[in-house]
Amino acid sequence: WGIYFADKDEKWYALEVDSAGNVWLKGYTGYANTTIRQSTFGFSTSNLLSVEGIGDTTTAYVNGQIAFSIKDASMKKKGDIGFGLIMNSQSSAVEVMFDDFSFSACP
Questions:
Q1: Among 57, 62, 12, 72, which residue's Cα sits nearest to residue 39?
Q2: How far apart are CA 69 and CA 37, in angstroms?
Q3: I need a labelling partner for 62 at 20 to 30 A (CA). Which of 22, 42, 80, 96 fits?
Q4: Residue 30 CB: number of other CB atoms within 10 A?
Q5: How far apart are CA 27 and CA 13, in angstroms?
Q6: Which residue has the higher pLDDT, 105 or 15?
């Protein structure tokens, strides 16, 4: 599952995680994707994902810790922000809840 952002003309980015603790920042064109950055974290029972974009720097957080930070001028283009749920395993039961969802924009 993950958060998608900077959605413009079928080009968008996503912060995605899996149950093994892998974290990816991916760039999408339609449904085709490219991994921009990957990291591994120890997850807890409840996990908080966040993405911060300031200028051309995008920083991804997992449970308040920086997963990675990258500079990419193409990410600062205006676009939509949203969140999504991606399920890629049918072999195990998964429960996902969104609690205290918030969005804030810098002036």
A1: 62
A2: 9
A3: 80
A4: 8
A5: 5
A6: 15
**Residue recorded with tokens 């994707």:** 33
CB 17 within 8 A of CB 4: no
pTM of the model: 0.70
Neighbour tally for 12: CB within 10 Å: 21
Range scoring the smallest mean pLDDT among 45-49, 59-63, 64-68 = 45-49
- Is 42 within 8 Å of 24 (Cβ atoms)? no
Q: Residue 32: what residue type?
A: A
d(CA 16, CA 32): 14
Average pLDDT rounded to a whole number, residues 31-46: 82
Residue 11's φ and ψ, nearest 5 degrees, are -115, 125
| Diameter over CA atoms, the chain | 44
Virtual torsion, Cα 86, 90, 94, 97, nearest 10 deg: 30
